[in-house]
Amino acid sequence: MIIHKILNNNVVVILNENKQEQVVMGRGIAFKKHVGDEIDENIIEKVFYISDKNMTNKLQELLKDMPLEYVKLADEIIKYAKIQLGKRLNDNLIISLSDHIYTAVTRHREGIRIKNVLLWDIKRFYKDEFAVGMEALNIISNKLKVDLPEDEAAFIAIHITNSLMDENITNMYDITKVMQEILNIVKYCFNITFDEESVYYYRFITHIKFFAQRLITNKTFDDESDDNLLSLIKEKYKDAYKCVNKISDFIYKKYKYVISNEEKLYLTIHIAKILTQQNK
Questions:
Q1: Are residues 247 and 270 in the same domain?
Q2: Backbone phi and psi for residue 72, each to the nearest 5 degrees, phi listed first
Q3: Of 164, 7, 135, which is closest to residue 73 (Cα–Cα)?
Q4: Angstrom distances, CA of residue 26 to CA of 23, 74, 160, 279
Q5: What are phi and psi of 88, to 5 degrees?
Q6: Residue 61 domain flag
Q7: pTM for the whole structure
Q8: Suppose 259 and one of 40, 176, 233, 248 were both cysteines; which one would form an S-S bond, judging by CB atoms 3.0 to 4.6 Å apart?
Q9: What pLDDT, on a 0 to 100 scale, did the predictor assign at position 220?
């Protein structure tokens, strides 16, 4: 491997066989080295390749000033998240997560604490991702001897969820807000407290999470519903369907988003199942 750029003593950039830039990390990998020199491959700890050129540039800028240990921490957390969640994570997560951990630890050491206003919602709506965030705090504590508050576990969960959904942070907050609004309408309609351990609640949350994502990104749900099936569902689950209509009216008034009949069908079924389970 030949050095193409030197970012700092521990990070260099090389060109692969396709002339694409790769970031190579290793303790002292660029010490007394120059562009054009060969790398000692025995001290390579990590090689990053991000297909998005802009993201590659951002990673390089980040690594110029950030200690190597934070990127290694983020990489360890990402590997853990992939195993626990069983899902693909966007390559760009290494950038946002490294930056967040570095900033969070710096803030903590300076005695600055930032409250996460979505902490309780993240705990409820993104339980698996929050559990990964809590384990991330353990990893950070073991490696850096810094005990971050669980607010930071929720922030880490947000970054992971963004990576799963390919959303930005602003969209994540908006999506969570829409989810909370829908849940509040259902609570109001039936005066119930949700059993958050119920499989029906989990399925409902998953459904409205992706519905909220479509709403915020202004993507419509292709309406291929069977009118006969919708009529049957409306008749069978009258109360649930009335609640869905209230949700539909609210969403249109606030967001100018029209909920399709097929979406109403699925929402009605989910709400009806929650009610059935609650009444047992």
A1: yes
A2: -65, -40
A3: 135
A4: 10, 15, 25, 59
A5: -80, 140
A6: no
A7: 0.67
A8: 248
A9: 67
In the prediction, which pLDDT does 240 show? 94
The domain of 72 spans: 68-166
Kindly give the parts of the chain with pLDDT less than 50. Answer: none
Whose structure tokens read 């351990």? 197
Contact of 119 with 150, CB cutoff 8 Å? yes
**Amino acid code (one letter) for 254:** K
Q: Please report the pLDDT score of residue 179 as a whole number.
A: 93
Q: Tokens in use for 24?
A: 């190579």
Instruction: Specify whether 213 is located in the same domain as 269.
Output: yes
pLDDT score recorded for residue 280: 63
Domain-embedded: residue 48: yes
Q: Does some domain include residue 63?
A: no
In this structure, are residues 20 and 52 in contact, taking their beta carbons and an 8 Å threshold? no
Q: What angle do CA 100, 107, 47 make, to 5 degrees?
A: 30
Asked if residue 30 lies in contact with residue 6, where contact means CB atoms within 8 angstroms, the answer is yes
Query: pLDDT at position 165, please?
Result: 65
pLDDT at position 221: 58
Q: Are residues 246 and 183 both part of a single domain?
A: yes
Q: Which residues of 233-258 are buried (b: 16+ CB within 10 A; e: fewer)?
A: bbeebeebbebbeebbeebeeeeebe
Please check whether residue 58 lies inside any domain of the structure: no
Q: How many domains does the chain have?
A: 3
CA angle, corner 189, sides to 187 and 193, nearest 5?
25
For residue 69, the model assigns a pLDDT of 87
Decide if 140 contacts 70 (C-beta within 8 A). no
Identify any residues that bridge with 47 across adjacent strands, giving them in sequence order: 24
Which of 166, 201, 234 is the last residue in one of the domains? 166
Q: Are residues 148 and 176 both part of a single domain?
A: no
